[in-house]
Write a structure and sequence with these properties.
The structure is a single chain. The chain is mainly alpha-helical. Helices cover 47% and strands 2% of the residues. The protein has nine helices and two strands. Helix 3 packs antiparallel against helix 4. The N and C termini lie far apart (69 Å).
Length: 190
């Protein structure tokens, strides 16, 4: 009986710790998207970035220039546009208490209005090497806008966990000429 009570207490404690960890994830990171309109309208073309990634001024600028949205027209009905703008502004990085949003705001100079998340030093600086042609990670991201390729919980607003591997395939490939390799040259000398 004591054993069953102890097991039940341990399971309850583990469940509470797990719940706290999940809440901590969301508190630390940029938060989730809670707007079905935003998810539908913007998420139909690209990953729907959480509002906590950019300050209010950036979201306002983006939403006011949908006729030329990174070279494409992303025009939507005025009521949907107003709804999405209000949502993004109210959940923007400068209004968020999430730690990552606060970190993002600390690297954006007050006079700057970034409209591309990948141009924010906090994001672009950390990820720059992933677009280097010599990086052989799997999956191979073609742009930094493909968050879910590496961040398995990106849709939930949690970007700490990554699922990518660096492959040593080029070192094992028959097509790769390693005859000039310093390691092989050292072995030949012995």
């Amino acid at each position: 009986m004591k054993r069953a009570g102890l097991l039940a207490a341990l399971l309850l404690a583990a469940g509470l710790a797990s719940t706290a960890a999940c809440a901590g994830e969301l508190r630390y990171d940029v938060g989730t998207n809670d707007s079905p309109v935003y998810e539908k309208e913007c998420g139909s073309c690209h990953f729907p970035y959480q509002a906590g990634w950019l300050p209010e001024r950036s979201w306002r600028k983006l939403m006011s220039s949908l006729d030329n949205h990174f070279g494409d027209s992303a025009q939507i009905k005025p009521d949907a546009r107003a709804n999405i703008t209000a949502y993004l502004v109210s959940h923007s990085a400068d209004k968020s208490s999430n730690v990552r949003s606060r970190e993002i705001m600390s690297v954006i100079p007050p006079g700057e209005t970034p409209i591309s998340l990948t141009k924010v030093l906090y994001v672009g600086g950390i990820h720059g090497g992933f677009l280097d042609p010599t990086f052989k990670g799997k999956p191979e991201a073609k742009t930094l806008a493909q968050c879910p390729l590496c961040h398995q919980k990106a849709h939930r607003g949690w970007f700490a966990a990554v699922t990518y591997t660096v492959s040593d395939e080029s070192f094992r490939s028959n097509e790769t000429d390693l005859s000039d390799s310093p390691i092989l040259l050292m072995r030949k000398k012995k």
